[in-house]
Amino acid sequence: MIRVAQRRYPLGGTVDVVVIGAGHAGLAMSRCLSQSSIDHVVLERGEIANSWRHERWDSLRLLTPNWQSRLPGYCYSGADPHGYMTAPEVVEFIEAFARTIDAPVRTGTTVTSVSAVDDRHRVVTNHGQWRCRAVVIASGAHNIPAVPPFAAALPQSLQTLTPKDYRNPGQLDDRGVLVVGASATGLQLADEIHRSGRHVTLAVGEHIRMPRVYRGLDIQWWLEAVGILDERYDQVDDIVRARRVPSPQLIGTPQRSTLDLNMLSERGVDIVGRLVGVNDGKAQFSGSLPNHCAMADLKLGRLLKTIDAWAEQSGKSSEVTAPERFAPTFVAEAPPLSLDLTSGRIGTVIWATGFRPDYGWLHVPALDHKGGLRHDGGIVAVPGLYVLGLNFMRRRKSSFMHGAEDDVRDLGAHLATYLRDSAYRRTLRAAAG
After folding, report:
1. Terminal-residue alpha carbon distance, the chain
2. Do 345 and 371 belong to one domain?
């Protein structure tokens, strides 16, 4: 693996902008700031692309094809454009980008506090303090696993893991595994663990069903071509709801395989409803599985009709295969509503229930009553504060690597204007004083 040469920067000081996080989003903003000659530093708690190095399971690949892997002024140039990067390959890609733009990164620097001081921000780290006029939070949306409170009621004999902890089936004993959550992560882990010879039960709630390939092209090609990924946050009726939509059931494999609940059922995975509680050592599942599956099938049908209509209108239909439809999701007549976790048949519970950001270090009035960041398309409700990389932040593609390019262009322009205007206001105050 090619490593970025570590540069030396002062242990604190004064800059125009502090960027928190040296993943793809933070580095994309760094490039934008450098092009505008804005003095800045990128603070990273670990290493460049840290979460891809240390917080991913071994077999994980990107859900987007290699041709879609791009950052501002930089894109994939390898020999497998239709493949899907492994985690080490993602690290190499991001490192190469950091090296190309000569990003001013300070690794091993953990931000412990961001607060407002006069008309500036004070950023406190384990290696000194920084004063700046603006802060860009690019620390990601996957900091803390979103494990439900009733997880505390699980029998103590069970091993519990989150996708941050899980690496491969070798971590597990030979007993069965309950995977909670059926978005991309849950499906992939359920499939991998089942293939290792362990019995798997998958608890399914709301989910987005999606084929890997449709009419001969990757589904991401269609989503990009039709314009779905470019839909803006201010163009939807309920952005709060839209930001909570689970990730689609996709997997990146050399075979470009589709993975859905039907395939898991055929392979022997038990499909049950959403886990709603644990009582007296028994997992309790919702009876809403048929409804969740019917809704996922309905939304899939709508998506495919939208794609077909665009293909016809654009003249693409003659260049691709015929429209396809997929069998409805199979649901047993009476899915189990409970599972005894004390019987010894289950040895591990994996919480594939999503993540939430960690803003415990943010000491400014920017959080809502649920601890979420109040922002308007990445412009936080505190002057001089910005955020990147959140789900559907400015566009549906905001959380994808290739979504950073448009977002940093928009926010970078806003930030540059803010710095110019704030400098003008300070000049006026100094003249008046």
Report:
1. 56
2. no
In tens, the pLDDT along 25-66 reads 999 999 999 999 999 999 999 999 999 999 999 999 999 999
Predicted confidence band of residue 6 (pLDDT cuts 50, 70, 90): very low
Question: What CATH number has the domain bearing residue 132?
Answer: 3.50.50.60
What's residue 118's pLDDT?
Answer: 85
Tokens matching residue 311: 């293909």
What pLDDT score was predicted for residue 9? 56
CA distance 329 to 209: 9
Rg (CA), the chain: 23
Same domain membership, residue 367 and residue 340: no
Tell me how far the alpha carbon of residue 422 is from its chain's centroid.
33
Give the residues across from 326 on adjacent strands.
Answer: none
My answer on whether 242 and 361 are in the same domain is no
Q: Where are the alpha helices (DSSP H) in 229-286?
A: 239-243, 261-267
- Contact indicator for 264, 193 with CB cutoff of 8 Å: no
Taking all residues of the chain, what is their mean pLDDT, rounded to a whole number?
94
- Max Cα separation, the chain? 78
Q: DSSP string of 2-67?
A: --PPPPP--SSEEEEEEEE--SHHHHHHHHHHHHTT--EEEE-SSSTTHHHHHSS-TT-B-SS-GG
pLDDT tops 50 at residue 2 = no
Bridge partners of 130, per DSSP, are 13, 123
Give the pTM.
0.93
Both structure tokens of 283: 């997992």
Q: Give the Cα separation of 76 and 74 in Å (integer).
A: 7
CA pair distance 385, 259, nearest whole angstrom:
40
If one counts the domains in the chain, the total is: 2
Q: Report DSSP letters for 320-363, one per residue.
A: SPPP---PPPP--SS--SEEETTSSSEEEEEE-S-EE---TTEE
Instruction: State whether 211 and 313 are in the same domain.
Output: yes
* Residue 256, token pair as written in the block: 């470009």
* Residues 132, 163 share a domain: no
Question: Which amino acid would we find at residue 402?
Answer: H
Q: What is the pLDDT of residue 145?
A: 94
Q: What are phi and psi of 50, to 5 degrees?
A: -60, -45
Tell me, yes or no, whether 7 lies in a domain. Answer: no
Weakest mean pLDDT among 16-20, 228-232, 289-293, 356-360:
356-360
Match 């949306």 to its residue by tokens.
Answer: 141
